[in-house]
Design brief:
The chain is an alpha+beta fold and about 180 residues long. The protein contains 6 helices and 7 strands. Strands 1, 2, 3, 4, 5, 6 and 7 form a 7-stranded mixed sheet that branches. Helix 1 crosses helix 3. The longest helix is centred in the first third of the chain and has 22 residues.
Length: about 180
């Protein structure tokens, strides 16, 4: 698959997967068509960064995993002068406060499976692929689970909750999760 087509497919997959999720509805409280455009802009940026790093995983037109290499002491949130929609700014600032930056790691920014293909193991397969990459590089992994129904999947793959969940103002809960390397 051509790199441009692969990144376009990943953005479409993530839009389909997250459009009706509570976190997306909270970040972009608009009708579905507008919410899809706003979410698509967010996904495009992360997908492009992941593809550039060689850490974007896509399974056909059904699942995508956006992994980002994070060096130690990296700035996680865009600086305050970067304009973001109000709720997205709240989210990224809260997530950045909790994102561990003491050591380099792979960050699973998004893992999405199109609604008709969820529960078939595609997300778990992409998760395992990214974790094999992390292990090969000797890196731990980090993510924020945006749904409690995904916690068991991440726990089966060695992640543990990292501190208390993040409660968004008048919004859903997000669970920071960490996975050590096998040596730790």
């Amino acid at each position: 698959m051509a790199p441009i087509q692969r990144t376009q497919d990943a953005v479409e997959i993530l839009c389909d997967a997250f459009l009706e999720e509570a976190l997306t509805r909270w970040m972009f409280p608009a009708p579905p068509e507008q919410r899809r455009v706003s979410a698509g802009r967010l996904f495009e940026q992360a997908v492009a960064e992941s593809a550039k790093a060689g850490t974007l995983d896509v399974a056909g037109a059904d699942a995508a995993a956006v992994w980002l290499p994070v060096p130690a002491d990296a700035r996680i949130a865009p600086p305050p002068e970067v304009e973001l929609p109000a709720r997205l700014r709240i989210l990224v600032d809260l997530l950045a406060q909790r994102h561990p930056i003491e050591q380099p790691h792979l960050y699973l920014a998004f893992l999405g499976v199109t609604p008709g293909k969820q529960g078939l193991g595609l997300g778990g397969a992409l998760l395992a692929e990214g974790l094999r990459r992390a292990e090969a590089e000797g890196l731990p992994a980090y993510l924020e689970a945006s749904s409690s129904r995904n916690l068991p999947l991440y726990e089966r793959h060695g992640f543990r909750q990292l501190g208390n969940p993040i409660e968004l103002p008048d919004g859903p809960t997000v669970w920071p999760m960490w996975r050590d390397t096998k040596e730790n």
